[in-house]
Design a protein that fits this description.
CATH superfamily of chain B: Cytochrome c oxidase, subunit III, four-helix bundle
Strand content of chain A: under 5%
Number of helices of chain A: 16
Order of helices and strands of chain A: HHHHHHHHHHHHHHHH
CATH class of the largest domain in chain A: Mainly Alpha
Largest sheet of chain B: none
CATH topology of the largest domain in chain A: Cytochrome C Oxidase, Chain A
Structural class of chain B: mainly alpha
Number of strands of chain B: 0
Structural class of chain A: mainly alpha
Oligomer: heterodimer
CATH superfamily of the largest domain in chain A: Cytochrome c oxidase-like, subunit I domain
Radius of gyration of chain B: 18 Å
CATH architecture of chain B: Up-down Bundle
Order of helices and strands of chain B: HHHHHH
Number of helices of chain B: 6
CATH class of chain B: Mainly Alpha
Distance between the termini of chain A: 28 Å
CATH architecture of the largest domain in chain A: Up-down Bundle
Helix content of chain B: over 70%
Strand content of chain B: under 5%
Radius of gyration of chain A: 22 Å
CATH topology of chain B: Four Helix Bundle (Hemerythrin (Met), subunit A)
Number of strands of chain A: 0
Number of domains of chain A: 2
Number of domains of chain B: 1
Chain lengths: 465, 187
């Protein structure tokens, strides 16, 4: 760790992991409710638990991104963070606001929460993933502005690198597109149209810039490959991301009442969205092969390679599977979407945050470069446990989705939704079991932070590699 | 001098060019397959397009590509100011393309023709506008390269940047050379 102020990333990462645990617990609850419908009813109904599951995911990833930025930007710009105090203050504001919101979801009926928080003054609630009360949304905007100010001032006064600029552009985009969550037109078509500007343009647009820059940072640090080469890759990756991802929004506009040309635009551009993810995979492996050093933190390298591969599979391949309009006509809103969502979020965004945590946490805790071998082995176990579990969750949901699409939509004699749900319940049971293994992986991951021992040392990179 | 180096320019731009060509290829293929089942419709509306004005644009792009070739030749023998002049010429021809194309769009617009008119115009606008954006991008790249060349950033020994810009510009030109016959002429 080069700058004292980088340490403000630590509470952000700890909170992120804590909320991650909450997300997985609620995931297990709704997974079980899929097959045991009245589990925990009426205390925690499915719709509430699902809201908590998805909202926690978004919030902890935001904590992760902010922590990553606070660690990365001072190091890249070679200067202390503009205001560590502001960063800590915003941490508490965000955490308290987030916790209150989740408690609100769990303790108050949703309609009551809307009333309590004055939703009628500026109605923004009630839409999937954007369920937060309006005051929470305003809080998020304030935290984001303070965060961008802090990071922006740091970038301005220090060295300007491609990595920090791309990260900054991604974070600004994240904040700007969130503003569309305040736009809530009465026209349902328009509502959905702009809703996707938050949802799609986040995960298939600006978040990819954040992911690309964090990946580039971790690779520069762990491989010792020239910054120039890594930056060039980053340029091409973000160019392809934006070319395919922006118009690719069209793959959400097939059936919501928008003009027909969206079926063409959406199909063509989003069919190419796997390209930037594929480039990221090639990039990561190439850089590791060209490495000038064998960094002692092999766990971080594993996460970096893992995120590139899993993002390509989850976001790229599983996205492509149902992105063409003629296919999507049958598959939209089925478990195929759920399968894609799980692997894409895990592969692209969970793993990139964990890669950054894995790289930076030992340094923030006073190590020279890495944790002990014993701790790293444990962390790698958690990597494989969580990743393989997620592969199985995805496969089981894909199986459920294919069967559902067939029985409910494709056959000559389509069956009603709930009848079909009963017939695919075996897949849901298996998904739940895979989910339990995921939780075990997460527990192992957390345990690895508490394993001490002699620090792993740098082994000289073989020049012939 | 490293004249035999292949491909010319930065390898990164080639990865980018291939990805871009893939997007256009898919667009062209979609056009072809859709046309096959709507031949009548495509033929009728194709006749409404102004081939002459498109030919002017084709000549503008080919000429600008030629200028870019001359620019690369000039810098490779160290003639810096000549290279900059050729590049400015190429940018000028690119701008002519953009102006002519904009006039054409304005004409369509005033006739009430847009993306939603029919399937043919949907493809026509999508393809030509996507290409139009690439011409803008190409002009920006050439301008950056020209500025760097003007301030002495390139020499006979090292002019990868100019080759990189030239490669991208030729791609933009090449795409138009397929787009023009496909959308305007072939029936």
């Amino acid at each position: 760790m080069k700058f004292e102020s980088q340490k403000v990333a630590m509470p952000y990462f700890i909170a992120a992991i804590g909320l991650f645990v909450g997300q997985i617990l609620f995931g297990l609850i709704i997974g079980l409710q899929y097959v045991v419908g009245d589990f925990l009813f009426p205390e925690i109904p499915f719709n509430v638990a699902r809201m908590v599951h998805t909202n926690l995911l978004i919030v902890w990833l935001l904590f992760g991104f902010m922590g990553a930025a606070y660690y990365l930007v001072p190091e890249e710009t070679e200067t202390e963070l503009h205001s560590p105090k502001l960063a800590i203050l915003m941490f508490w504001v965000f955490l308290v606001a987030g916790a209150l919101t989740i408690l609100g979801y769990l303790l108050v009926p949703y309609a009551g929460l809307a009333q309590m928080t004055g939703n009628e003054l500026l109605p923004t609630m009630g839409r999937e993933f954007l369920e937060q009360p309006t005051i929470t949304k305003i809080g998020i905007v304030i935290v984001a502005l303070a965060f961008l100010f802090n990071i922006g001032m740091t970038v301005l006064k220090g060295r300007k690198t491609v990595v920090s600029l791309v990260l900054f552009i991604g974070l600004v985009g994240l904040a700007v597109f969130f503003l569309f969550s305040f736009y809530n037109p009465d026209n349902l078509v328009k509502d959905k149209f702009y809703w996707w500007w938050v949802v799609h343009l986040w995960v298939e647009g600006v978040w990819e810039l954040i992911m690309g820059s964090i990946l580039a940072f971790v690779l520069i640090k762990t491989t010792g490959v020239d910054r120039e080469i890594i930056e060039k890759w980053l340029y091409i990756i973000i160019a392809m991301t934006l070319i395919t991802g922006i118009v690719g929004t069209g793959h959400h506009y097939y059936w919501i009442g928008t003009p027909e040309y969206w079926q063409w635009w959406g199909s063509i551009f989003s069919a190419l969205e796997p390209i930037p993810f594929f480039m990221m995979t090639v990039f990561a492996f190439n850089m590791v092969n060209k490495r000038r050093r064998n960094h002692p933190n092999q766990a971080a390298v594993l996460w970096a390679l893992g995120t590139a591969v899993m993002a390509f599979l989850g976001a790229g391949v599983w996205g492509f599977m149902h992105t063409l309009a003629p296919v999507n006509y049958y598959t939209h809103g089925t478990q195929i979407t759920a399968a894609h969502g799980h692997m894409a979020f895990y592969g692209a965004y969970v793993m990139i945050v964990l890669a950054m945590i894995s790289y930076s946490m030992p340094l923030m805790r006073g190590r020279k470069a890495a944790n002990s071998n014993k701790s790293q082995v444990m962390e790698m176990w958690s990597f494989w446990l969580m990743t393989i579990s997620m592969v199985f969750i995805t496969l089981f949901l894909t199986g459920a989705g294919i069967l559902q699409t067939w029985l409910q939509r494709f056959t000559e004699t389509p069956q009603p939704f709930m009848v079909v749900q009963d017939q695919v319940s075996l897949f849901y049971w298996m998904r739940e079991i895979a989910g339990v293994f995921f939780l075990i992986g997460l527990v192992v991951y957390i345990a690895s932070f508490f394993v001490g021992g002699e620090e792993a040392t740098e082994s000289k990179a073989r020049s012939s590699v | 001098m490293n004249e035999k180096r292949y491909p010319p320019g930065d390898l990164a731009i080639w990865i980018f060019i291939l990805a871009e060509l893939l997007v256009f290829a898919i667009f062209f293929a979609s056009y072809a397959f859709t046309r096959a089942s709507h031949v009548e419709l495509f033929n009728i509306h194709q006749l409404q397009l102004d081939t002459d004005i498109a030919l002017v644009n084709t000549l503008a792009l080919i000429t600008s590509s030629y200028f870019v070739v001359r620019a690369v030749k000039a810098i490779s023998v160290g003639k810096r100011s000549e290279c900059v002049k050729w590049l400015l010429g190429a940018i000028f021809m690119g701008l002519i393309f953009l102006v002519v194309k904009s006039v054409e769009y304005a004409h369509h617009y005033s006739n009430g023709i847009n993306l939603r008119t029919n399937l043919f115009y949907m493809f026509y606008f999508s393809l030509t506008f996507f290409h139009y954006m690439h011409v803008i991008m190409g002009v920006v790249i050439l301008s950056v390269v020209t500025y760097k060349g003007y301030s002495g950033g390139y020499s006979a020994a090292e002019h990868t940047g100019i080759e990189t810009g030239a490669s991208y510009w030729h791609m933009v030109d090449l795409v138009w050379l397929i787009l023009f016959p496909l959308v305007y002429v072939m029936r």
